[in-house]
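Late entry, evening session. Most of the bench is empty. Finally got around to the prediction I had been postponing all week. Sequence below, unchanged from the version circulated by S.P.
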Amino acid sequence: MEKFFTKRYALIAVALVGIVISVLIVKLQPVMTHNPQARPSVPVSFIEIPLKSISPQIIGFGNVKPDLSLQAKAEVTGRVTYIHPNLKKGEIYPAETLLLKIDDKDYLLQLKQAEADVLANQANLKEMQLTIENNELELKLAQEKLKVRDKEYKRLQKLRKSGSVSQSKLDAERQNLLQQQQEVQQLKNKKTTLPSDLEVMKAQLAIAESKLEKSRRDLERTEIRLPFNGRISQVYAELDQYVATGTQLFDASGLDKIVVNAQFPIDQFSAFARGFKRDKLQKINFSDYAGMTQMLASLGLTAEIEMVGGTSSVWQAKVERFSDELDPQTKTVGVTVSVSGNYRDIEPGKKPPLLEGMYMKVSLFGAASEFAIIPRFAIQNNEVYLIDNEHKLSRTKISPQQFKGELALLKKADLAGQKLITSDVFPAVSGMAVTPIQDNAALEKVNTWLEGK
């Protein structure tokens, strides 16, 4: 054998023998056939997808702010002569409560002077009106006299020709005629200028009346009253303090209405906005709406707010307006909602008043619509697993209209009634056989979430 392996052709012979043995092994193997029962059916839990009328909801957060804020400043100059004895930070007052008063003596004198100026100008105006009336009468009389003088002069001219009167008498009458003509002309000139004088006096009266009105307003401004039902947030003025026009006196905020500017993620808001009915938007005539609040109400938008980390009390809110821009830092959309009269609904220990700065959770609801409802945990990478009529798994792409809590709302009504797999399946192969098992626990959860819609 040693001599054989030393031969040149020994290696080739060994390789040929190996190839022959390999071919024989493959040929002698039994034929492999596919056994369809090799992979058993996989048991899966399922629920039937319900079709429900539900109001879409998105959740945002924001701080409470008063709808009305006042920075009271002095509108006149003077010494503070009165301050309400309870004018303190946090105090609540009804509208029109007198809170401060500035010394009004100088303003009373100004008012009396202005009243006197008005009376004087009114008297001058009446006098001018009488002068105009008298001028009319005097002019008429002068014109009548002129006619008489003219006739007399013409009569004397005829008599002079016949020598019945002297030249001196004719000259005297001519002098009288000229004087009468001059008087008429003077009265006509006066009639021309009197209306201008009348307008000047009317203007002077108007100026005096405006000064009188300003004096009255200045006198009113010496009393500083709260223009609405409000809470004092800061006090700056002190008794006997001299204040100039523009001096800060106190800050106050309204009690009748609060607003919350809630911020919503842009993707959630976009999905929510897709639920707005296009035909409703197209029919809106913006000239017929008093404001955005009315327009949004016509779209069926409502809201409610609750305190984050506080009581479980809920306040019904009105959707006031949308922000006109995205927040540049958070890329969120602002929606302003309001609550009116929250002080009337106070429940000690349960429902406190809504104060500035409170951090609130805002739920925004759209108009109710028909949705196919699936639990969020059943969504896998924008897909759901369904069971077809042959008890086989099918993977279906979905695009939820939006999410509401633990529910995903789909506009695909054709999914309603289909069997949705609620258990984990790995690997999830389309067409694989499954054994459906009713998931009563998941169905109960869905029903519970729907009851809380």
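Two things to note before I forget:
The mean pLDDT is 85.
The chain is about 35% helix and 30% strand.
Will write this up properly tomorrow.
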